[in-house]
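Recap slide: Peptide methionine sulfoxide reductase MsrA, sequence and predicted structure.
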Amino acid sequence: MYILDMFSKKTRMPAPGEALPGRTEPLPTADRHFVNGNPLKGPFPEGTETALFGLGCFWGAERAFWKVPGVFVTAVGYAAGSTPNPTYQEVCTGGTGHNEVVLVAFDPAVVDFATLVKLFFESHDPTQGMRQGNDVGTQYRSGIYVASPEQRRVAEEGKAAYQRALAEAGHRGTITTEILDAPTFYYAEDYHQQYLAKNPNGYCGLGGTGVSCPVGLHAAH
């Protein structure tokens, strides 16, 4: 019974008034990207766009995005919950409502948002609800947090296209990806930033469905 109660708590978003209180000060974190040396918190080059993606454990998710040409910097953190400036331990309790997300700052003249959405859907299974594989909890849910109406349009079209592709491939699951206006992003602790570059043999729980996402749009050049 205790195990079932813990499982239920971790997969249920905290109701109003239930979330952990958090803190007023941001958590200390890295200043620069461990791989490319660019500043995690900016300033970003003129014309840079940002978006947030949640697709399971943020260690592997971040690595998928920092490899993309046109991505200026990536950072991991917490978003779409209630607790201000949460710690990793707090997020893991299910008491903050936050998702583990990747901040992607990119040059839309080199890589368009549709390409990032395609990568997002192909890098995880977006039909699993509050989990990704063996990782269970609200922080592992699938989510795209958009910075503009155009990003929302592309994200919604990508979701619909991938749902059709899954059905055509014989997958019965329904995509549970939430698409929301970008909420406050809280940078995760230093040791989480670019974790798999610092720890090449570290855990990575990402796994897709094996189905290609037919977004149909390509980078500008």
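The first strand starts at residue 49 and ends at 55.
Residues 48-198 form a domain with the Peptide Methionine Sulfoxide Reductase; Chain A fold (CATH 3.30.1060.10).
(End of recap.)
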